[in-house]
Amino acid sequence: MPVSQTSKETYASIQSKLGTNQIAVLNALHRHPLASNEDIAADLGWTINRVTPRSNELREMGLVKIGGTKKSRTSGKTVQWMYVNKGAS
Q: CA–CA separation, 39 vs 25, rounded Å?
């Protein structure tokens, strides 16, 4: 699905209010629309301990939400995050 111009503008305006690591996590979610912290860590080459606080901050800001769950690579289930397009109506 192509990204609308409004979505691109909204994303650009949000980026100016975020830290570098938060932006990196959001960019990973744009590449992988449903991704767990494990998936994001693998994509970015980070440890999961670097990703988890950023995804939680983004959730608290209302920029990401739980999009589903899946089997974790290590054990049990893990949350899959998805970007929330605040410009969508």
A: 10
Distance from C-alpha of 44 to C-alpha of 23, rounded to nearest angstrom: 11
Residues 65-87: tens digit of each pLDDT: 999 999 888 778 999 999 997 65
The pTM of this model reads: 0.78
* Number of Cβ within a 10 Å radius of residue 51: 25
CATH code for the domain of 55: 1.10.10.10
Q: Are 62 and 84 in contact (CB under 8 A)?
A: yes
Q: Are 80 and 73 in contact (CB under 8 A)?
A: no
Say how many CA atoms lie within 13 Å of 7 toward its Cβ: 11
In a domain, 89, yes or no: no
**Residue 15: pLDDT band by 50, 70, 90 thresholds?**
low
